[in-house]
């Protein structure tokens, strides 16, 4: 049982209403003062995951700076290593690199890259990132997806193995893998330093148990948990259900939506497909209403302060090491800091 769960502040996406750096800095410094362990950023087909962390690096000194999740199709593995190395140096060794494959709609529709063989692609990618940061020798790869030097179609044949010019502050940077499917979760347990689930219920730890078998000591699990202090639990759950309705209903193709598949594996198969059907019929409000309160409640912390404090006990009994709190409301951050101290 984990006696003290670490806290992370999740900035998420810098999207429809871009926030100036001073707001991010204010939230980050408050989190650091309250004893938060980390700051996290998101990435979709909008803002990148690294720039907001660079903005707060100079204003903080202890809190870890983590991408959650930087998409591997957005950058070659050596470019990802360059980003991580640069931010790690700027922050004096506080970077955790969270990466993930995203989904076929984003990978092929936005980045123009193939989604095939995501497990093999991820394994190859992580190895190259580690080799580049380790800087032990010029980086080469015989892999199918990221061959180095490149010798494929259109190559001039002039490429040669290179070693990063800059000496990284650290030769190893922790890598977290965002993963939903059973095989991808097992891959995270095998080759990564940590795992970032999308949905995690402290009441259904068996969903992932077999896939996390044999993780190495120190393996981290960082989970996004929506927190909403409100005497009306149903009202507090509404933002959770709105997000779930969008992700489960439309964040993926009808025939391939990892979020829908995960909800089904978590015991809500009929409800998951009902949400998706309604969303694709254009009935988005009905899709949100179809999200079961029970599912939304299990993966979040909502209600009066006393209820949140009580339900934290279930989280403490899980392998989760860090709870990521969305937004930057200082009262909520202070409450969680007090409850987990």
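Sequence proposed for the structure above (341 residues):
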């Amino acid at each position: 049982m984990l006696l003290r769960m670490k806290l992370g502040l999740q900035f998420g996406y810098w999207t429809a209403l871009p926030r100036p750096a001073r707001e991010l800095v204010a939230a980050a410094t408050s989190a650091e003062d309250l004893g938060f362990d980390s700051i996290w950023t998101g990435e979709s087909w909008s803002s990148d995951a690294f720039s907001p962390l660079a903005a707060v690096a100079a204003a903080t000194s202890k809190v870890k700076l983590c991408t959650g999740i930087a998409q591997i199709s957005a950058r070659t593995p050596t470019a990802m290593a360059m980003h991580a190395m640069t931010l790690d140096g700027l922050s004096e060794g506080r970077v955790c690199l969270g990466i993930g494959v995203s989904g076929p709609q984003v990978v092929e529709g936005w980045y123009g890259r193939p989604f095939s063989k995501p497990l093999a692609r991820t394994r190859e990618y992580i190895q190259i990132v580690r080799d580049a940061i380790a800087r032990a020798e010029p980086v080469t790869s015989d892999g199918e997806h990221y061959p180095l030097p490149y010798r494929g179609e259109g190559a001039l044949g002039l490429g040669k193995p290179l070693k990063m010019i800059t000496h990284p502050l650290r030769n190893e940077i922790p890598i977290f893998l965002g993963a939903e499917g059973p095989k991808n979760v097992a891959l995270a347990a095998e080759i990564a330093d940590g795992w970032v689930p999308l949905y995690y219920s402290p009441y259904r730890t068996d969903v992932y148990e077999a896939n996390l078998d044999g993780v190495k000591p120190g393996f981290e699990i960082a989970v996004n948990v929506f927190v909403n202090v409100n005497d009306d639990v149903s009202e507090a759950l509404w933002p959770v259900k709105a997000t779930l309705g969008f992700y489960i209903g439309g964040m993926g193709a009808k025939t391939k939506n990892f979020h829908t598949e995960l909800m089904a594996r978590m015991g809500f198969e009929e409800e998951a497909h009902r949400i998706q059907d309604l969303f694709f019929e254009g009935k988005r409000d009905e899709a949100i209403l179809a999200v079961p309160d029970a599912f939304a409640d299990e993966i979040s912390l909502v209600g009066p302060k006393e209820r949140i404090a009580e339900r934290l006990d279930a989280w403490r009994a899980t392998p989760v090491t860090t709870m990521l709190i969305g937004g930057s409301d200082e009262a909520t951050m202070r409450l969680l800091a007090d409850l987990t101290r």
